[in-house]
């Protein structure tokens, strides 16, 4: 079997679609105003994908201004392997806040596996979900 072309590769977020029809329209749409995540979980998944593809602009754009860092350095030694969403609370289309608990699996250049486990807090402002930070 020939290797998949990058365009048709599975989206890193784990929803099962290819990146080109899954999170890429969100990554692109955030800049054009065409597409935004409808739920907190959807935003969380698209932000994970942005980490995986190195889209810093999307990560900063979907960060709440109150907690957004001035700059964002992505660790070039980490490859994001898989996202597991463990639980969600609120965060639906009609909600103003929501939380998403997840484990993000990564591997470094030495082949060591690691995990980031977080309960993330999101708020919806002007119809747009934004990442606030870890709960607590
Ligand atoms: Zn995706």
Main traits of this protein?
single chain, 136 residues, Nuclear Transport Factor 2, Chain: A, four-stranded antiparallel sheet, binds zinc ion
What does the model show?
With 136 residues, this protein is of the alpha+beta class. The protein has one domain (6-134): Nuclear Transport Factor 2, Chain: A. The chain has 3 helices and 4 strands, in the order H-H-H-E-E-E-E. It has helices spanning 24-32, 40-53, 56-61, and strands spanning 79-90, 97-107, 113-125, 128-134. It has a 4-stranded antiparallel β-sheet, with helices on one face. The structure holds zinc ion. Zinc ion binds next to helix 2.
In terms of topology, how is this protein built?
Blueprint lengths: L23 H9 L7 H14 L2 H6 L17 E12 L6 E11 L5 E13 L2 E7 L2
Zinc ion binds next to helix 2.
Question: What does this entry show, briefly?
Answer:
The protein is α+β, with helices and mostly antiparallel strands and 136 residues long. It has helices at residues 24-32, 40-53, 56-61; strands spanning 79-90, 97-107, 113-125, 128-134. Helices cover 21% and strands 32% of the residues.
């Amino acid at each position: 079997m020939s290797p998949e072309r990058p365009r048709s590769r599975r989206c890193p977020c784990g929803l099962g679609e290819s990146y080109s029809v899954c999170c890429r329209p969100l990554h692109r749409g955030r800049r054009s105003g065409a597409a935004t995540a409808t739920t907190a979980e959807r935003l969380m998944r698209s932000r994970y994908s942005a980490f995986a593809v190195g889209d810093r602009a999307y990560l900063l754009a979907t960060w709440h201004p109150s907690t957004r860092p001035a700059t964002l350095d992505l660790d070039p030694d980490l490859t994001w392997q898989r996202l597991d969403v463990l639980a969600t609370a609120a965060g639906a289309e009609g909600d103003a806040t929501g939380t998403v608990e997840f484990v993000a699996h990564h591997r470094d250049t030495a082949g060591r596996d690691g995990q980031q486990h977080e309960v993330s807090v999101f708020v919806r402002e002007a119809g747009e979900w934004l990442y606030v930070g870890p709960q607590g």
